[in-house]
Give the backbone structure.
Amino acid sequence: MKQKLTLLCFMIASTLFAQEAKKSYSFSLEQSIEYAVKNNYSMINANRDVEAAKKKKWETTTMGLPQLNGSVNYQNTFEFTKQGAAANAFNPAANPNDIVLLAFGTKHVAIGNLTLSQLIFDGSYLVGLQSAKTYLQISENAKIKTTQEIKEIVINSYGNVLLADESIKILENNKKILEKTFVDTKEIFKNGLIEEENVEQLQITLSTLTSSLENVKRQKRIALDMLKLLLGIDLESELIITDQLSVLTQNNIDLVLLKKEFDAKNTIDYKIGKNLEKSKELMLKLEKSKALPSLAAQVNFGYNSFANQFDFLNSTQQWNNFSNVGVGLNVPIFSSLGRSSRTQQAKIALEQAKTNVAETEQKLKLQFEKAKSDYEFSIEQLATSKSNLNLAERIENKNQIKFKEGMASSFDLTDAQRQLYSAQQIYLQAMLDVINKKATLEKLVN
């Protein structure tokens, strides 16, 4: 009994903990965009890319700053290298043809060294500084592009949830009306006033409508999970969206946007293209700089000590200091035209980058014209689909009345219902298109 009570308490505590750990979020579209810009997984990595670029820029800068390095070396010689010499070199009376073996050095050697070096001139270093700055600009522009793409995707995803939600409401209402019609028709059939075929036809329509409703409910769950993923929140968390599709659609009808001037040079894609062109230009400078001499200087300070017994830790051990200063000049003279070949390759790459920029500019102009046309058409389509929906509702209502009065068959009613259901979905999609097409246009214009 005691074990059962303990297990019950554990289960209750686990349930309460799970409920407490489950987070809940409630967002409007603007709040969703704001949250995603900070917490989306791609945005988090984009921010890290910028930080890494900043560190890379500083790393490149330090290459031209003073460098201080220290080293400590110890050598224990087990067997000395022998050097041969004529015997009479040390003993005039010895046979000059005899060879004596000599060993130089001590068994233990310790050396401590400190080196201060400074790059004085190197063309590659100067180009490297410019490249690091360009690399940082590329990372920053890539972050801006990621922000724009995340914003557009969040708008699309948020709209898909709203579309599914509105579709569920409409389908549930349609199902409710059709179920009543189906029940009434069965009663009329039982009284022998209509044929069984009318009942069966309505039953087919009802089954199809029920299946569509369940499918849309599943689609809503998927769309909601997709939005959670974009926002960077756990899929197990609860997410409530507060905007309404109809209100959001009206807020996104902006005729002034259609008259806004477009300059491809202000778009982030064009700026990224110019960044890449700049990087190719710097690669050309780098290849040219390799033909210039480089100059560096260094200062060495150190101590060494020698012993046949390991006495380096004794205070009586003798240590000998040394120091020197040096300047090194490296002058490229001849590379068998290797540098020239690399320079020509860099020139070709630069021309390719310029061509890509020109192509990007033309593509952006075309994208703007298409996005503008699509947005304008979506507004027109919204008005058309709303008018068609009103007509479909009147036609379906008239057929309902005619069917109940025996003046229309179930086939006529079914056709009118299908036309109404189609008009409803087209109208919902038209509302969503206004939101999505505006987001695409704004991404280019802004």
